[in-house]
Amino acid sequence: MDFRHLGNSGLKISAISYGNWLTHGSQVEADVATACVRQALEEGITTFDTADVYANTAAESVLGDALAGERRESLEIFTKVYWPTGPRGHNDSGLSRKHIMESINGSLRRLQTDYVDLYQAHRYDVETPLEETMQAFADVVRSGKALYIGVSEWTAEQLRAGHALAQDLGIQLISSQPQYSMLWRVIEAEVVPTSEELGISQIVWSPIAQGVLTGKYKPGQPAPEGSRATDDKGGADMVSRFMDDDLLGRVQKLQPIADDAGLSMAQLAVAWVLQNPNVASAIIGASRPEQVTDNVKAAGVTLDAEVLASIDDVLGDVVVRDPAMTARNAPKHRPS
Questions:
Q1: Which CDD domains does the record match to this protein (predicted)?
Q2: Range list of H helices, the chain
Q3: What topology is assigned to 3-328 in CATH?
Q4: What is the pTM of this model?
């Protein structure tokens, strides 16, 4: 396993991190989830990413149970706050001081730890002054309940404003967690250059594009039974943007490139995002332990310029690059 600095901090994290969105507490049973976490540890993964909203807090509990007994100092545990949790009351979402302070306590209890290494704003809250949010985060850090602060799916402008306030408050905003893959490159034009300037790293989610880049979805054919595209609990909505015959046909043409590189399609996809020097870690998920073992093999892989060019030639104009997509997909009001 490779380890990389997160932002301009002294914290190192595993280049492959394990995330439990859409799996723990919902798609897979607790014993299978625990087996996946144990396999991640066996493969050298030390960084684990979750959020309070995943399975309405159940995912944090499953992860806490799975990591119980491990040496805490040897792990990097990340969680997030913003989306509705609990009974979805009027203060059960967002980045108000009230919700942040209550949420960190709940997350620590479920994760069975005294602190998280990284506490992340899961989206930007348009209904709360940024000053209030960053002050609350600063107080969470000063109380010892989080070591560093990060964000998820913020625009370059929002990153710059949040980073400036963090500096004024004497805390470290060191990470951004965006969607990023061969097919979804909207961060490259603005978020990545801004992050490089500010000393912020990317921890990217969906590097395999919701499983599309494994090649399991074939053009003109129904999605395999049990796949994410058939999951009406949320997976199908996320993968639907990629379920286009032209796009799926081009993904099939990546197979020879993966074969020549000695990689599976999934390994090629994960290795591709790790070629970006601003990416500190790629988050993988799993519903079976063997998926962890397969994906981890992407760590340390170097793809040469010819391979990267071949990927671009194959995918062509199906790649989404518009930086405005980050703002376009962001919540326009606090969810309830």
A1: Aldo_ket_red_shaker-like
A2: 30-42, 58-67, 97-111, 130-142, 156-169, 191-198, 235-239, 245-252, 255-261, 265-274, 289-296, 305-315, 324-328
A3: TIM Barrel (3.20.20)
A4: 0.92
